[in-house]
Amino acid sequence: MKNKITMARLEQYQSIKRQIIIFESDLGISYLKGVDTSKISVQSGKVSRPAEDMALKLYEISKECESEYKRLLDEFEVLTKYILHIKNEEVKEIAIRRFIAGQTYEQIGDVIFCSRTTVMRKLKNYIAHNAH
Question: What's the mean per-residue pLDDT of the chain?
């Protein structure tokens, strides 16, 4: 099942979050900066329009970026909702600390007075049995 929540999928949370930030921080950047549109080049007897060609290529790239950005947002939403709807409060805290806050299993164990392996086991067991 493609949409099943797994540990591997949840472990991507921070990476997805960072990628979303990259897309958002780069919005509005002019890709045509530095392109001299006053000069045309001639190759094979045809007039080339580098600015227009570049704009078309950038439009295609922009559309792919928008598509990837939307995919990342959708996945981020699914994972966040899963984490926030965990029924077991201790496991929810572990998941929030691990995936949303980016803490290590060691850090989480120190806070909730468990070993790193106990923290990991609790989370893995919950996800294995509640993966919807």
Answer: 82
> What's the pLDDT at 47?
59
Q: What's phi and psi for 75, nearest 5 deg?
A: -65, -40
12 to 34, 39, 44, 72: CA distances (angstroms): 36, 46, 49, 10
Burial 12-35 (b: 16+ CB within 10 A, else e): bbeebbebeeeeeeeeeeeeeeee
∠114-77-126 over CA atoms, to 5°? 30
Q: pLDDT for 42-69, tens place per residue?
A: 455 555 677 776 777 767 777 888 888 8
CB atoms within 10 A of CB 103: 17
With a CB cutoff of 8 Å and minimum separation 6, the contacts of 91 are: 122, 123, 126
CB 119, CB 32: distance < 8 Å: no
| CB neighbour list of residue 9: distance below 8 Å, 6 or more residues apart | 79
pTM of the complete model beyond 0.85: no
